[in-house]
Amino acid sequence: MVCLGNICRSPMAEGILRQKIILHRLPWRVDSAGTGGWHVGESPDARAINVMKKMGVDISGLTARQFTVHDFFRFDHIFVMDSSNYLDVIRLAPSEQEKNKVDLILNQLYEGKNMAVPDPYYGSMDDFMNVYHLINKACDRLIEKFMHEYMG
Ligand code: 4NP
């Protein structure tokens, strides 16, 4: 799960997907990162922590890190939040094969529409809650889709 700062959208996405992975007992791993390095080492934004807590997921222990080229070899799928993240990640891809691992997370819900999860950093709690609901729905769809890929 990749966004710009790794303190708002992607740590929320990591927490949401991890909870579903546990619920469905899937042998998957999930992590998150930011394309930028400004917040490396920081905890998620307090508003992201609060909204997630309200929805039953504790993300207070996560630490921001920057996306690196190694992530292409560690993961089968790389979900980004907006097209700016997409371009930043694609730029680091070692080959076409790795580029194909990258997609906007909302394409899980609205295929080919390239819709963004809006950056809530300068927004309100409502904006953070909106991020939660968008990512939650996208992760439900993602699980449904990829569960069959892995379970046969
Ligand atoms: P995120 O939100 O990409 O969802 O973590 C942001 C966090 C920090 C900044 C921008 C977006 N920033 O400019 O510092």
Explain this structure.
With 152 residues, the chain is mainly α. Helix content is 44%, strand content 7%. The protein has one domain: 3-Layer(aba) Sandwich (Rossmann fold). The protein is built from six helices and four strands, in the order E-H-E-H-H-E-H-H-E-H. It is globular and about 40 Å long. The two termini are 24 Å apart. The structure holds 4-nitrophenyl phosphate. Residues 3-9, 34, 38, 119, 121 line the site of 4-nitrophenyl phosphate (4NP). The site of 4-nitrophenyl phosphate has 11 residues, from loops.
Short structural description:
The protein contains six helices and four strands, in the order βαβααβααβα. With 152 residues, the protein is mainly alpha-helical.
State the CATH superfamily name.
Response regulator
> How are the strands of the largest sheet arranged?
1-2
Percentage of residues in helical conformation? 40-55%
Summed up, the domain count is 1
Number of helices: 6
Tertiary shape = globular
Spatial gap, N to C terminus: 24 Å
The top level CATH class name: Alpha Beta
Number of strands: 4
Q: How large is the radius of gyration?
A: 14 Å
Secondary-structure-based class equals: mainly alpha
CATH architecture classification name:
3-Layer(aba) Sandwich
Average pLDDT over all residues: 97
Distinct small molecules bound, one entry per kind: 4-nitrophenyl phosphate
Estimated share of beta-strand residues: 5-15%
Quick one: biggest sheet?
2 strands, parallel
The CATH topology is what?
Answer: Rossmann fold
Order of helices and strands: EHEHHEHHEH
Low-confidence stretches: none
